[in-house]
Amino acid sequence: ILLDKDGKRKHTRPTFSGQQIFALEKTFEQTKYLAGPERARLAYSLGMTESQVKVWFQNRRTKWRKKHAAEMATAKKKQDSETERLKGASDNDDDEDDDYNKPLDPNSDDEKIAQLLLKKHKAGSAGGALLLPAPDGDAPA
């Protein structure tokens, strides 16, 4: 028993053996809360007091919650950045959609019209045939 400078009993922190910690962690994996009889059995089997087991579980739950909260925050940041990335990609697609949805300029040269029609065809169909006007204006045979 240690005494402080006033002669009062000084609280000492218990140190647990590796075997005790292993058994406590294994039990914690199975259940985060122990009822009275379970706590008493575990304390007896490990040579600890019920109070020590109770406090160990309280501290371990606090550590578990902090870790879980940090993991959730990291996952949320990752999701938010992915959402922003996809939103940015969607904004770029909108620019392409603007070109896609513009009416064709009848004064544009045939090559530009053919490229735009080809682009629209690739985006809008899944394998149908595209009929482009022949360069001289005749319909295909």
UniProtKB/TrEMBL annotation:
GO terms for biological process: cell differentiation. The keyword S-adenosyl-L-methionine does not apply. Residues 67-113 are annotated as: Disordered. It comes from the Eukaryota. SUPFAM superfamilies: Homeodomain-like (SSF46689). It is found in: Nucleus. InterPro entries: HD, HD_metazoa, Homeobox_CS, Homeobox_NK-like, Homeodomain-like_sf, HTH_motif. Residues 7-67 form the Homeobox domain. Residues 9-68 bind DNA. Transmembrane segments: none annotated. The keyword Iron does not apply. It holds the Pfam family Homeodomain. One of its GO terms (molecular function) is DNA-binding transcription factor activity, RNA polymerase II-specific. GO terms for cellular component: nucleus. Its main location: nucleus. This is NKX61 protein.
